[in-house]
Fold this sequence. Notes:
The chain is globular, with a radius of gyration of 22 Å. With about 300 residues, the protein is an all-alpha fold. Helix 10 packs across helix 13 (about 275-285) and helix 12 (about 260-265) runs antiparallel to helix 13 (about 275-285). It has 2 domains: about 1-30; about 40-295, Lysozyme (Orthogonal Bundle), CATH 1.10.530. Strand 3 and strand 4 form a beta hairpin. The protein has helices at about 1-30, 40-55, 95-120, 125-135, 160-170, 175-185, 185-190, 205, 210-225, 230-240, 245-255, 260-265, 275-285, 290-295, and strands at about 75, 80, 145, 150.
Amino acid sequence: MKKNLKNALYIFSGLLAIGGLAYWYQRRKTVNLDNYQTSPTAGVEAQQLSASLLALTKSTHLTLSSGLIDSGLTTTGSGFPMINKQAPITAPVNEKSIRLNQLRNLVTKYDSQISLSAKETGVPKFLHYAIILHENPDGIATLDEGNGVGLGAITLVTPTDTIRTAMKKGRLTAKQIELIRTHASNATGILASSDLGAKLISKADLKKPELNITLIGIQLQNLLYQFGADRLPQVLFAYNRGVTSAKTFFSTNNLQKVDATTLVEKSKGLPYFNTGSNYVLNQLGIDGMLDLIVNDTGIKE
C-alpha cells in the first residue's frame, strides 16, 4: 500500500509540474495590454525606415533609384508583363488615364486613413497606394474575390499574425490598438496573445477600410524590417505570395539580395511564384504602379 501511495504521489507531482509548465507557457504568450508599451526605439526605427524609402525617390531618369524603379522592367498595356531593355513598352495613354483617375479616386476616398497609417508605421503613403491601386483599383472596400478581401486583398490567413508580429516587436502603437479595438469584431482575442497561427479576423472586419488600411501598413512595415528597406522587390513579392513561401523561395534560389529584374526573371513561369513575378513587374516596372504614383502624380511621402 505504501508503494501504491508513493507511486500516486509521484504521478500527482508530475501532473502538477506539467500543469505548471503549461500555465507558464500560456502566460508567456499572453499580452497584458495594460502594461503594453511600444518599444522606445520603434518611433525612431519608423522614421529611419521612412527616410530610407523616401531616399529612393531622389535619382535616375524616373526620379527614383534603381532600387525602386528598375529601368530594365517594362509593363505592357494589356497588363501582361515583359522584359525588354532594348525597346521598353509603355502603357497606352488611355490605360494610363484610367489608372490616374482610379488613383485620384483612391486619394479622395482614403487619403486620411492612409496618411494616418503612414504616420504610425513610417511606411510612405506611395507604398500604401501602390498596393491598393494594384489589388483594388476601384477602391471598393467590400470587395471579396477569391481569397482576398477589401482594399489590400488581404486573406484570412495573415492579418492576425500581422498584428501579433508587430506586437512582439514592440511596434504596435496606441493608435493602432485603438483602431483594432474599434473595427475588429474579436479585438480582445487578437490582442490577448502573441501566439502566431490564429485566424481571428473575419471577412466583415477586412471590409472596413480603417482596419484594412491599418493592416496594409503594418504588414508592409513587418516585411520592410524583415527584408530591408533596400529590398523592395522582395518585400512586394512577399506581400503577394506570403512571407513564408517567399522566404523559402529566396533562400533556395539565392534571391535574398537580387534586384527587381533578376527576381522577375528567376520567378517568371514557375508554378505559384509566377504571380509574384508579375506583381513585382507591375509595381516596379516603367509605367508600373509606383512610377505612376510617384512620378505622374507626385506622391513622394
